[in-house]
Amino acid sequence: VTDRCDFRCAYCMDPDQRFAPRDAVLTLEELRRVAGLFVDLGVRKVRLTGGEPLVRRNLTWLMRELGALPGLDELVITTNGSRLAAMAQEVRDAGVKRINISLDSLRPERFRAITRTGDLNLVLRGIDAAIAAGFERIKLNAVMMRNRNHDEVCDLVDFAVRKGINISFIEEMPIGRIGGHDRSEVFYSSAQIQADITARFELIPTTETTGGPARYFRIPDTETRVGFISPHSHNFCADCNRVRVTTEGRLLLCLGQEHSLDLREILRKEPDDDEPLRSAILSAMQIKPEGHQFEPGGHSVTLRHMNLTGG
Prior knowledge:
Elements: H1 28-40, E1 45-48, H2 59-67, E2 74-79, H3 84-93, E3 98-102, H4 108-115, H5 120-133, E4 137-143, H6 153-163, E5 166-170, H7 183-186, H8 190-198, E6 204-206, E7 215-218, E8 225-229, E9 244-245, E10 250-252, E11 260-262, H9 263-269, H10 275-285, H11 306-309
Parallel strand pairs: 1-2, 2-3, 3-4, 4-5, 5-8
Antiparallel strand pairs: 6-7, 7-8, 9-10, 10-11
Helix pairs in contact: 1-2, 3-5
């Protein structure tokens, strides 16, 4: 599409990627139709993610439409923060309750190196704008890599504590082929991250959940909750109830597998009849994989990159 992201997040960029033709991408109306069917089938939380969702023109229209769906409990967005300084209040007013912001470093040059073109100051201004906009919950997402940014674990926690927001640390997932680093050399486990944090902060286990894969801890006398998303060291597949729909209409049944269903073909073949789409979604749920095939520091098990996965 012609909407361009200001920068890519962490390890997800394919430098040779070309943008898809506009007619290959689902329209906002088609995305609204798909989401409406999922909610009719019992889905209670919808997340807009990417890539970078805020580059999509007129996205706030879709947010308002999704937020008004009867039966939907929560609308969430994950963003790299590059457009939040200008859009945070607009996003909140459109009905988004929670927001996740990618932040892998607090050092400007390192941040630029990891994201390839990112402006840390712009993202920090976006975080402040999100706080001012009054989201019910704001969470930072950080992918930690050995000898890349692992020495900033406590700095990131301290930043979250000072801002009164949450943070989750994510083990790098082997999604998409990359040339920038050797995954086996940069893998940094949740156990190592937790050990780093407890050297400076007390972590109290909690049973809190957002329905996702994270395990949560509280830091006493603060507003901050620390999460760990550990696809390698604490496999969460048995509890996974998530699927993703890409902007090109692929229904991905597992983040770590290539199983998918082409919803775009059904949408456009049957523009006025939802029953074929409903039946296809229900059938696809029966073949959702039991788990991924990630190995710590292993080779990619999927060809698509995270910025092509979205959902």
